[in-house]
Design a protein that fits this description.
- The chain is mostly helical and 100 residues long.
- The protein has a domain at 54-100.
- 54% of the residues lie in helices and 10% in strands.
- It contains four helices and two strands; from the N terminus they run H-H-H-E-E-H.
- The chain has a two-stranded antiparallel sheet.
- It is extended.
Length: 100
């Protein structure tokens, strides 16, 4: 761990209640700013638990540890399955996928 990470961990330990409140407030602000995205993620989790959506391997490299990628948050269950590395590459513009 670098020194900054150690300082942050120490502060969180010494200020546990304040850190918890700050985390709750940060989460609330994120949900308010990204409501459609949060709803889509929630619906994917719910569909996976119910079995109406099945996790598949990465559509690019075939890795079994894939995560859902939304091209349009308005269609929450229309997802492409990408591993973390391919997902990051897609958002960084290093990968292009044609969505059907």
């Amino acid at each position: 761990m670098d020194s900054r990470a150690i300082q942050i961990k120490k502060w969180r330990t010494e200020n546990a209640e304040k850190a918890r409140r700050q985390g709750v407030n940060d989460s609330k602000r994120y949900r308010e700013a990204n409501g459609l995205k949060c709803r889509a993620r929630y619906l994917v989790r719910k569909a996976l638990r119910a079995g109406s959506l099945v996790k598949k391997p990465c559509m690019v490299c075939g890795s079994p540890g894939a995560e859902a990628h939304h091209e349009d948050y308005g269609r929450p269950l229309d997802v492409q399955w990408l591993c973390r590395e391919c997902h990051v590459d897609l958002h960084a513009g290093r990968l292009s996928i044609l969505f059907v």
